[in-house]
Amino acid sequence: MPIDAAGALAAVPRVREIAWDHRDVQLYHLGIGAGRPATDPRELRYTLESRLHVLPSFATVAGGGRPGVIGALSMPGVDVDLARVLHGGQRLRLHRPVPVRGRASAASRVVAAYDKGTAAVLVLRTEVTDADGPLWTDEAEVFVRGEGGWGGERGPSGRPAPPPAEPPDHVVERAVREDQALLYRLSGDWNPLHADPEFAARAGFERPVLHGLCTYGATLKAVVDTLLDGDVTRVREYRTRFAGVLYPGETLRMRMWRPPGSRGSAAGEAGEAGETGEARVAVSAVERDDAPVLADTFVRYE
Fold this sequence. Notes:
globular, 8 helices, alpha+beta
């Protein structure tokens, strides 16, 4: 069987050394759409090395290695066709702000393998630590079509919850460039699904799709800029489910709900330091009648 769940779960963590500097951070920020308008001071904090702040989602590409959804496929006990793989979800926990430059150790292992009958779901956890201690923990949920049926645990439901019934506190729209996926993939995700029309067709898509983690980063940037006044250090956790695809050239619509305790308050409007909680976000594609792109999306901040 292509997936040996017991073997994958029993395998020792794979450890690699990673390093990054301001150039990697700037390339990532440009890859998720930062820098528009180019001279806006709020954008320069993502693009100019003399005033650079690191968006926490940079952690998903730090070191230039393969993202978790690809890394999981090279773990012991896993041997599947990349064209049958989808990124199901992502969760990031920050132990400290991500520095502009760093060197760290990343230890990855499969911590869960669920049998959905007609598919399998793997959860790859990566713990990143530098000389001063833990930096971040991220988990990639990998959905593999046609690989279930071994009689294992089904795991939690993968059905996204509907967004809140009340109107959102903020609605932000961001146009995605037609070449956005080509730029984003320079940060390390070389999956041809995002560039090669023939591969995309084999995977069941009409054309190459934008990386889910690119949308993930663009959404966090919008939340930080809108709710936290650009203060990247306040983010503590960020998680989502990938509910659909976005095609380069389309427009993201991000609906944001502030934490209930801050709704209607001055602190909630201004995103002042001292406001804490968990904001909820729903992300859709404007041109396709708000087709869902990200669901069950939460940003916890302090």
